[in-house]
């Protein structure tokens, strides 16, 4: 079947190991179901895989992709939950299963005509979402949902203040939309003036250059940029505030700012993906509020290389979607 796969990994030249073409289908394990993919979306995770992060050479070739929506063999329209894990071994949260894996790490991913997942990983797609919109939800949007709604410690009925770093990213745009729909004030930073303007168009209250002083201290920070923004994130919190961190795109080696963290009694909370239940809640949240993923571009799967080039250049605003 047609797929976008990692056939080699290169830490400094990720696209050199990308192959868009025919890949064999693996046998489907008992209890798993095959989904005919209608749309799939790219994530930074796919580039990390092509760099060899979390994808050792013995697992190659590996079909890439964590995000998809499609149709099951018995005709159900579904969104694919990308976290393969057993909630029973981790207090009901499969993201805490020590053997947890994401699609495309151990099992073939979603950038293909078909993808197989455990039956519990299928979530009904509401008719109100297009295939392309639904395909954006399982990674960046689910991660942002858990961070903003369940991990940031913001009041459930709105009124909190949130800083989102790196406003142009797929996860960051999701965080802006979710936080605004939940009734919070949102400050954003971005290196790019055009992305700052687009963040304001999405509803952000204030958009500033990366590292600029905020109008006031915030309750929580959505941090995915890492080294380039960490100091600013720690410095932007009110006493008792919280950084929720799910990524380190620019590297993970900044000074920890420990003195400020203990003196102001700040919390640093790690967050990765979300549970199936949170994906169901996210879908219901979109259905209820009418907010939708920002999609930069939709291309056919066969043209995946061009989308990967845009992801690697970092010039996309929102999600890059592939259709099958
Ligand atoms: N843990 C999880 O479950 C999980 C899930 C999804 C994503 N992630 C991680 O979250 C991160 C973002 O993912 P994504 O898919 O949203 O990626 P993305 O769309 O490529 O966005 C990354 C953003 O980071 C900002 N950035 C990059 N380098 C920077 C630098 N040197 N200085 C300042 N800002 C910089 C950019 O914002 P501006 O151009 O606006 O400045 C860019 O838009 C990745 O590291 C990804 O692996 C983690």
From TrEMBL:
Q: Which residues form the Enoyl reductase (ER) domain?
A: 13-322
Molecular functions per Gene Ontology: oxidoreductase activity
InterPro entries in UniProt: ADH-like_C (IPR013149), ADH-like_N (IPR013154), ER (IPR020843), GroES-like_sf (IPR011032), NAD(P)-bd_dom_sf (IPR036291), Zinc_ADH-like (IPR052711)
**Pfam families given in the database record:** ADH_N (PF08240), ADH_zinc_N (PF00107)
Q: What is this protein called?
A: Zinc-binding dehydrogenase
Source species: Frankia nepalensis
Organism lineage: Bacteria, Bacillati, Actinomycetota, Actinomycetes, Frankiales
């Amino acid at each position: 079947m047609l797929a976008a796969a990692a056939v080699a990994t290169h830490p400094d030249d990720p696209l050199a190991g990308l192959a868009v073409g025919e890949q064999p289908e693996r046998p489907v394990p008992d209890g798993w179901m095959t989904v005919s993919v209608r749309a799939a979306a790219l994530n930074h995770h796919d580039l990390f895989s092509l760099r060899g992060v979390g994808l050792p050479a013995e697992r190659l070739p590996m079909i890439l992709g964590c995000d998809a929506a499609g149709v099951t063999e018995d005709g159900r329209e579904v969104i694919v939950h990308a976290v393969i894990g057993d909630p029973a071994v981790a207090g009901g949260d499969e993201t805490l299963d020590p053997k947890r894996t994401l699609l495309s790490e151990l099992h073939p991913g979603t950038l293909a005509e078909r993808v197989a997942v455990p039956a519990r990983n299928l979530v009904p797609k509401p008719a109100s979402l297009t295939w392309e919109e639904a395909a954006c939800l399982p990674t960046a949007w689910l991660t942002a949902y858990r961070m903003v709604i369940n991990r940031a410690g913001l009041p459930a009925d709105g009124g909190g203040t949130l800083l989102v770093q790196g406003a142009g990213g797929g996860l960051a745009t999701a965080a802006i939309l979710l936080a605004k729909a939940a009734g919070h004030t949102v400050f954003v930073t971005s290196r790019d003036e055009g992305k700052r303007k687009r963040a304001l168009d999405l509803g952000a209250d204030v958009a500033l250059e990366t590292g600029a002083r905020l109008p006031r201290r915030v309750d929580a920070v959505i941090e995915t940029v890492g080294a380039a923004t960490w100091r600013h994130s720690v410095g932007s919190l009110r006493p008792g505030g919280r950084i929720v961190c799910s990524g380190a795109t620019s590297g993970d080696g900044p000074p920890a700012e420990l003195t400020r963290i203990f003196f102001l009694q700040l919390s640093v909370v790690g967050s990765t993906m979300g549970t199936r239940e949170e994906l169901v809640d996210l879908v219901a949240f979109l259905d209820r509020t009418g907010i939708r993923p920002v999609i930069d571009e939709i291309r056919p799967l066969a043209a995946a290389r061009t989308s990967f080039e845009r992801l690697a250049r970092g010039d996309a605003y929102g999600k890059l979607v592939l259709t099958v």
